[in-house]
Design goal:
The structure is a single chain. The protein is an alpha/beta fold and 310 residues long. Helices cover 55% and strands 9% of the residues. The chain is built from 14 helices and five strands. Strand 1, helix 8 and strand 2 form a beta-alpha-beta unit.
């Protein structure tokens, strides 16, 4: 993956400093803003002080995100959406003659100037994530399979030459969708293997971490491949989430769904937060079936994908 541009990182740092400074002034001197705008100072300034505290928090997050924008893309995106929402809210209050024009212009000057830089950062991160990068790029599938080893030391080529294999690519261990996928594998394993299909889990963790997580679902003995650099993910077309996938309402609902939270294992996160999962049926160097998740909450029919049509 390409290195994130230094000038874009500097923009995030500057956004962090200015947001934190503005938030600090509002939190410490909330009455000053109203006197400057020619408004009566509200009796209760605590809500405005809390807005200042939130601005300080976002400022700190922007500054921290500058060192790894890809990892903190959610924070950057939330800040972008928050600024747009705030500007719409300010315009609505102005239309109702609640806020004077002077205060409206102040908010626009404070927030509008950062919409462009934040949008550029989001675009750059999305572009970097969608750029394929793999040590196996350009190789035919059989040449890739012969270079990939499972936890038992066998190559994928050797295993898939003997019998069809269902390659189940997981997201990072610890997420709800990964949890659901492993439950599904545990429930359907016998049915799939009765069809003569071997199941191989592909993940981004170490073999030690994988053994720990898989054992929680009764899958300790399941063949698995460690792909921390996501080389195999890239070859099979599983890239990081697009902005559309990342900020889709159903994705956000899935993350906070109470049922998902109750069943989720809140261990340390192991793997790429944003890499998409998928399921593939491979036999004798050929890709027979493929399922690429459109959204992380998708639930493919594993038994159907593992069926061999005669």
């Amino acid at each position: 993956m390409k290195q994130f541009p230094e000038w874009a990182s500097m923009m995030l740092k500057l956004a962090g400093v200015t947001n934190a400074f503005w938030g600090l002034t509002l939190a410490l001197f909330p009455d000053t803003l109203f006197r400057w705008a020619g408004m009566d100072v509200p009796q209760y300034l605590f809500p405005w002080q809390m807005i200042g505290v939130i601005a300080i928090i976002f400022g700190v997050f922007y500054f921290a995100a500058a060192f790894n924008p890809r990892r903190h893309i959610m924070i950057i995106g939330m800040g972008f959406v928050a600024k747009i929402t705030q500007l719409i809210f300010v315009l609505d209050l102005w239309s109702q003659e609640v806020l004077p024009l002077k205060l409206v212009l102040y908010f626009f000057a404070k927030d509008l100037i950062w919409l462009g830089p934040l949008a550029i950062v989001l675009y750059l991160v999305a572009k970097m994530e969608q750029t394929p990068s793999s040590a196996y790029l350009g190789l035919p599938l059989p040449d890739v399979l012969v270079r990939v080893y499972t936890n038992t030391g066998e190559t994928l080529q050797h295993l898939t030459d003997k019998q069809p294999a269902l390659l189940v690519f997981l997201r990072h261990f610890g997420c709800s969708s990964c949890h659901q996928a492993l439950i599904e594998l545990s429930d359907k394993r016998t049915m799939i293997e009765k069809n003569g299909v071997k199941i191989i889990v592909v993940h981004m963790a170490s073999y030690e971490d994988a053994r720990y997580y898989l054992s929680q679902y009764g899958l300790r003995d399941m063949l698995n491949v460690s792909d921390p650099n996501c080389d195999l993910y890239t070859i099979f077309g599983l890239h990081s989430m697009s902005l559309r996938q990342l900020f889709r309402l159903k994705y956000l609902q899935f993350l906070v769904k109470p049922d998902s939270l109750r069943r989720q294992h809140f261990d340390r996160t192991v793997g790429d937060h944003y890499r998409m999962p998928g399921v593939f049926l491979v036999y004798k160097g050929e890709l027979l079936k493929a399922y690429k998740h459109e959204y992380i909450h998708d639930q493919p029919d594993l038994v159907s994908l593992a069926s061999i049509e005669v």
